[in-house]
Amino acid sequence: MRKVIQLSLVLLLMVSMANAQRENAINIISYNIRLNVASDGENAWPKRKDNVKALVRFHDADILCVQEALPLQVDELLENTNYAMEGVGRDDGKRAGEFSAIYFDKSRFIKKDGGTFWLSETPEKPSKGWDAALNRVCSWVRLFDKKNKKEFLVFNTHYDHIGVQARIESAKLLKRKIQEIAPKLPVVFTGDLNVTPETEAIATIKSFLIDAKEASVEPAYGPVGTFNAFKFDSPLKDKIDYIFVNKGFKVQKFGVLSDSKDLRYPSDHLPIIARLSF
What we know:
The chain is α+β, with helices and mostly antiparallel strands. 25% of the residues lie in helices and 27% in strands. It contains six helices and twelve strands. Strand 7 (150-158), helix 4 and strand 8 (187-192) form a beta-alpha-beta unit. The relative contact order is 0.15. Keywords: Endonuclease, Exonuclease, Hydrolase, Nuclease, Signal. InterPro entries: CCR4/nocturin_mRNA_transcr, Endo/exonu/phosph_ase_sf, Endo/exonuclease/phosphatase.
């Protein structure tokens, strides 16, 4: 009888610990939401913004990292939410151009620090690097998690879509910057990196961070590819969106979300999600 009671107590303790781990986990979504351009027609932002917001809300994103967000989109993603936002426009370091913005639940997280640097030879100011076609930025924020009583950092970026050398050099710059800004704390690095996993640019990141998909305790969920080009019958073969972590985090789950409505995707990329614990 005593052994039965002991076993029951152990099982109850395990269930309690598992529930606590789920409750204290951080859900983070990385999502290229596609910039707002009228030429997208039926897929233009005004016709899909509500679906983007509903997706983020349904999947309980504690942190949302977006790419390609223009100022109006940045503002609309904040409306009727409990988010605060870190990020600047890539063209002037203020409001002009696309953001690589980071949204975080302000009731759970306290911002300790944050900033933006450019993916270029002059990262401290608005600039275009190497053979890139456009200015590119990485925004970052250091947060205190009130649930877990821990600090961590989130970095979010969008590599150039044209410059091969720019993507390679951007990865090298990111490695230096992340190690400089966050030498000891847990780190999450997200982004649309415009490269597939076998490339040098990804190898550089994997030399010091771990792909959340590969680290997930549960088998990764969803398709392999993350770019759909607004085609509902896309084969979804090419993975170009990523969430990386360092050893400060355990990845409980990872998924590529193929949510749709009326045979339409909310963006030309699929969002990716990871559930993280310290």
